[in-house]
Specification:
This protein is mainly β. The chain has one domain: 6 Propeller (Neuraminidase). Helices cover 1% and strands 42% of the residues. It has 1 helix and 27 strands. A 5-stranded antiparallel beta sheet has the order 1-4-27-26-25, with no helix packed on it. A 4-stranded antiparallel beta sheet has the order 5-6-7-8, with no helix packed on it. A 4-stranded antiparallel beta sheet has the order 9-10-11-12, with no helix packed on it. A hairpin with a 3-residue loop joins strand 6 and strand 7. The radius of gyration is 24 Å and the shape is globular. The two termini are 13 Å apart.
Length: 385
Amino acid sequence: MMLALALMGCGGDGGEGRENGGIDPVPAPAPSATATSTPPPAPVTTTAVTQTPVATFANPWAMVFLPDGRLLVTEKAGRLRLVTTGGQVATVAGVPAVVDAGQGGLLDVALDPGFAANRRVYLSYAEAGTGGAGLAVARGTLAADGSALGEVRVIWRQDPKVDGGNHFGGRMAFAADGRLFVTAGERQKGAPAQDLSQTLGKIIRIETDGSIPADNPFAGQAGAKAEIWSYGHRNPYGLVFAGNGQLFESEMGPEGGDEFNLIERGRDYGWPAVSEGNQYGGAPIPRHATDNRYAAPLVSWTPVIAPGGMIQYRGSRFVDWEGDVVLAGLTAQGLIRVRLSGRTASEVARIPLGTRIREVEQGPDGAIWVLGDGAGGRLIRLDPA
């Protein structure tokens, strides 16, 4: 089924005409010769998309394209699916046991930067343990036929494990140097996000084998977890490196105050001391502007968009989108485009899709693929209308 959806956007025309004349004086005056150059029209921003449903899943959470064009899709209950762009779905064996409760379960999936040679796949998920559940990251090797993960081992665990089933985070992104960054939610506990002796409410940076880079900002600091890169995060659900190496993150605020942040080494992003939202029920929280110790979001949303995954679009299929960050919106029920400009950013458009969107990825041909949320979450291909 193909559905055309209008969205907010803007475009422009540009160019100039040119006249040239000349007169031949010999042997007699000749009429003026006029040549007019008409430049091609300026590109017009893509302002509508079509939706092509491809497959349906049970509570899908994340996806990644393999080099051969197939996708790996996670389902929260603990299933990893191998999917063709034509909609054929198979199950990949070897996934670690997960805690499927609340917002926990099998979460993100990412490919090693050297996947073509080593076929390594990374999974983030909620893991049971003493005291409750906690985020974990495991690494395995995908069989040549895609049927199973082998040599699976945990390379990082959030500390401590706690009760409750919310705010796991779990997004992963690789830097250009191959280091792995992971978002770790504060498990709805608040204060631990400011405690450097714990990895609740942090973004962490590790090597692909789980070891800790010696140049991490808190490595060697007494009482601090050496893997921490930044802290003061609430429920971080989006993480992406831009083409210029900047790291961007999105996270859910409380009642209002969803955030889009530029993540920098060692910075404190303020939760729960400051927020652009309020406590549930309306009790005020001081804003970032009241205390310059805390890094303020580049963009915040009230009412909330409830951000899921996000990408930086690096194709030309969607005109005038190249370089924009595209966020999945759960409450927004569509996509949100954010335009970057140095150390600033602003929302430039929304793409309504009529359903809660958990994840977004760019396909090899520049099409955009999304995962709907929930028990009947669909894998959908988006193209310009």
